[in-house]
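Incident log, support desk, overnight shift.

02:14 A customer reports that sequence design results differ from what the structure should imply. Their input is reproduced verbatim below. On-call engineer (initials T.W.) acknowledged and began investigating.
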């Protein structure tokens, strides 16, 4: 599918997906240029301006330490994007390796890995991440590792199904009959045909990853203070001061909701446009 045709279909046939793409693009810009967009430092305190309501100086108000909530929400976008992208890189790499090897080669490795995946999927995702975080301890790198491992096994099953579908295609059998090495077949023919499925899975998983990171940070197992995570902001000052300073939970919650909505809408649109079983043309 050509880029111009893809963009046209995204704008015309999937307007919510186009809106999601705009949200994701703006979030990327905010994450990249947070230092320029934030008028205050992420931990710049002023005890004379604690719990100030939103105003012209502090658009989203201040918290109990006098920190600018707008600046911390902006820096929180950087944290969410960093965690989301790094987690996707780890989980999709592992999922692709497990899924393609299992689906294409089959045999004892496929049988073993599918039993491991079955056992892993029997555990609720959030519980699995919390257990891993309890073992590793809080921290951004540990959150990325926990989320990446948790997602990899779950998403490998989708990649495996796509690899099996490609493996059974006549052109793959013809290439093997012509004497091409199996590793070359996997790298040059199976992987490119599985890549759209990987992109769809990754785009759909990003919103869930950001939401899970916020949930883990909210529960106190994720990114520790004073790093501004949206979930941590909701848990720390937002939950304690919800009645007398509601802006401390409203604005991080809105940012989190908008980010998850954008990623979900974009992921659904990419699934409909890239999945040949769902395309009408």
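02:41 Re-run completed on a clean worker. Output:
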């Amino acid at each position: 599918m050509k880029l111009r045709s893809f963009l046209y279909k995204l704008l015309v046939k999937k307007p919510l997906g186009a809106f999601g793409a705009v949200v994701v693009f703006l979030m990327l810009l905010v994450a990249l240029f947070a230092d320029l967009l934030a008028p205050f430092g992420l931990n710049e305190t002023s005890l004379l301006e604690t719990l100030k309501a939103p105003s012209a100086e502090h658009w989203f108000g201040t918290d109990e330490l006098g920190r600018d909530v707008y600046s911390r929400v902006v820096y929180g976008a950087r944290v969410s994007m960093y965690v989301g992208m790094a987690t996707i890189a780890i989980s999709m790499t592992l999922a692709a390796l497990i899924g393609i090897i299992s689906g294409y080669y089959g045999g004892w490795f496929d049988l073993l890995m599918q039993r491991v995946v079955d056992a892993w999927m029997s555990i609720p995702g959030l519980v699995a991440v919390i257990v891993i975080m309890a073992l590793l301890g809080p921290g951004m790198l540990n959150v990325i590792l926990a989320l990446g491992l948790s997602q990899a096994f779950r998403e490998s099953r989708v990649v495996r199904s796509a690899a099996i579908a490609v493996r059974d295609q006549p052109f793959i059998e013809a290439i093997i009959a012509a004497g091409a090495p199996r590793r070359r077949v996997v790298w040059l023919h199976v992987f490119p045909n599985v890549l759209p499925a990987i992109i769809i899975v990754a785009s759909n998983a990003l919103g869930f990853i950001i939401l899970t990171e916020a949930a883990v940070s909210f529960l106190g197992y994720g990114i520790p203070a004073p790093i501004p995570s949206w979930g941590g902001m909701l848990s720390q000052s937002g939950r304690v001061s919800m009645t007398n300073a509601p802006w401390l939970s409203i604005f991080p919650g809105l940012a989190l909701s908008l980010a998850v909505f954008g990623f979900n809408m974009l992921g659904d649109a990419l699934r409909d446009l890239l999945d040949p079983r769902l395309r009408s043309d």
